[in-house]
Amino acid sequence: MAQVYNWQLGREMEYPYEGAYPQEQFAFVFNINRCIACQTCTMACKSTWTFSKGQEFMWWNNVESKPYGGYPQFWDMKLLQMIEQVNPGGQEWDASKGNGTGKPYGVYGGMTIFEAALKKYGPEGAQRALGYLPPDEEWSAPNIYEDTPKGVKGEPNLLNREGASLPEHGTWFFYLQRLCNHCTYPGCVAACPRKAIYKRPEDGIVLIDQSRCRGYRKCVEGCPYKKPMFRATTRVSEKCIACYPRIEGKDPLTGNVPTETRCMAACVGKIRLQGLVKLNPDGSWKEDRYNPLYYLVKVEKVALPLYSVFGTQPNGYYIPPRWVPRAYLMQMFGPGVDEAIEKYTAPSRELLAVLQLFRTTQKMIYSYKIEEGKKVYETTINGRKWEMYNDTVIGLGKNGKEVIRTTVEEPFYDRPNKHANSI
Question: Across all residues in the chain, what is the average pLDDT?
Fold first, then answer.
């Protein structure tokens, strides 16, 4: 095992390979507060990549209802329990040691899936990444427990009629949008004995070389998010490829410019923002103040990684839901939850403008600038005065040219009283 630095955990950790980092890394932010679980993203991915024989139960993108839903079912709960069995009571954070970008959330003192694997021996010896193979029935229902809420503890089928106001609801559920996180330290890469899985050096997208894959399903076992999937008709594994022809800007249908993936571009709820972040040689994020992803993750810290405790340093980030009990959210997103929700509830002037960029264009946004507008509203939030300005936010493409311009207040358009099918 090599020693690599994981900035999400605030410390070095063990990983089977030495750190190797691209100059740019594919990343995305999802705003859970906006998702309506329409599954448009899911079907956009399905109709593009996994519509063939043997792919019937492949859902590279899925939206699951938490706390009970999951695809495969129980994927996160099972792995958390496995880590706890290896290291009882040790999965704790020390948020007091946080210091800026190197340790933004403090220091995680528990075990990652790579460190826990060294303590768990099977017939083949120690694993490279702690994991498990879900049985077929756990792959059978991608929408299991959809819209099933969490009610009163210990009282089945009883909803809590009280506590239906922020900051936490007594009865609650939320939608979790998932695809491959294209991790910096992927569990699938660590687990594959054939070295058939790799990160592309140009953008950090994780791919499977199907000419090398022999269908051992170690990637399925080793990925904590269960995003590689085995295809029985070809006897090899497949996974989300981040629609890399669109990322490369080589798709003539989108104007030969870097373009968002299919699931992102189809999002009805405007919850998604994706792009490329620049990396330093040591794998840390290079300061890029006006990249919207850098701003949301590193400056405002309103977007948090999903289960960073697994140790893969995922490149998928989430703005947590405001109404869910904080203990549950901290288990999922780490100790930055309180700060993230506080900032999202009463957003700064700049944050409110950047949030308007979500799903405004299929073209990838590399940076932004803001033109100030007039004050249009003021109120009190959590006992403090809050003001809203109708600023204009401008998204810029890879070449620095404007690709989108929108305002904080949604504009109104008067349609002419003419219709194409009128007589």
Answer: 94
